Amino acid sequence: MKVGSSSLRTAEGRLDADLATHLIDAVADLRERGVQVVFVSSGAVAAGLAPLGLRQRPIDLPRLQAAASVGQGLLVHTYQRRLAARGLAGGQVLLTPDDVVERARYLNARGTLETLLGLGAIPLVNENDTIATEELRFGDNDRLAALVASMLGAQLLVLLTDVDGFYEGGEVVPRLTELSSAIARHSRRPGSDVGSGGIASKLEAARIAAFSGAHSVIAHARAENVVHRTVLGEEIGTWCPPSRHRPESRKLWIAFARTPRGRIVVDKGAARALIERGSSLLAVGVEEAEGAFTVGDAVDVVHDGRVLGRGLSGLDRETVERVRGRPTEDLAEAGEPTRAVIHRDSLVVLPHVP
């Protein structure tokens, strides 16, 4: 379950302790019923604004980090104090992008979260805003929550926000399966002045969850009994169902934890081979290479303007440009690299729906 900054901040700019307590009580109720819950909470920056005399979220990194430093302690103390009153422990887990991008750190983070859950504790997760640099940020806790859900094989991702769900034509959409097209329509809408994610980031999180085999719900954090109603499967907010097939964890890691460094455009024949036969991507099927990627970097595979998948490149961009469109036999005769541009074991074909 993830709650956003906008929901946790009062009109005066302080942390809404009443809502924070209400939500953590709901988490405690679920834990007492045998449901394992990871609570991903934004709000560190928002909680630190008022104590520092700041009226709105800063745009410069040093003041963002300062606000996070002050606010994180206030936020976690609020949660831990209430959990202790319920006889439960809350364990703070601060993550940076490297913790889900670098494989060893990914496995270590997963082990820590699984151990906390196994001991009956509630993991209290947030991005480590105090030390994260602008170039290496998740950008919003929606994606972080989805990656944690994927990491743990969660069944449900609950995204609590300050709107009633995903709107189309002025009405909340109760069930959404066409996530890719919805993201394309709404990706340019800005987020609030307190949080860093808008509805597009929640749709992207829902897409990650769907691909990971999890349901997701986007709902208003202040809706009556929102947590219990969501977990019980009541119709509230916008529900996004999971995909039918969940790939193994390494491919999920390739698909969503790695930031793509470029794009490889493929022809129709290559697109069909990737989708229908699960083939490796060979140089002959490549039309164009974009970006500044090198060997081992994640790249998106594109055909006809649509992202077909993501993989780890076996060649750097300059080499791909040099060998593109050429059969393997010709490359061998010319002394060029003949290995796959992206090997099938390092390639994830993304589902079109959702």
TrEMBL record:
Domain of life: Bacteria
Organism: Egibacter rhizosphaerae
Family annotation (Pfam families): AA_kinase, PUA
Residues of the PUA domain: 262-343
The EC number(s) this enzyme carries: 2.7.2.11
Main location: cytoplasm
Keyword Cytoplasm appears in the UniProt entry: yes
Source taxonomy: Bacteria, Bacillati, Actinomycetota, Nitriliruptoria, Egibacterales
Family according to the record: Belongs to the glutamate 5-kinase family.
Pathway info: Amino-acid biosynthesis; L-proline biosynthesis; L-glutamate 5-semialdehyde from L-glutamate: step 1/2
UniProt KW keywords: Amino-acid biosynthesis, ATP-binding, Cytoplasm, Kinase, Nucleotide-binding, Proline biosynthesis, Transferase
GO CC annotations, alphabetized: cytosol
Name this polypeptide is given: Glutamate 5-kinase
Annotated catalysed reactions: L-glutamate + ATP = L-glutamyl 5-phosphate + ADP
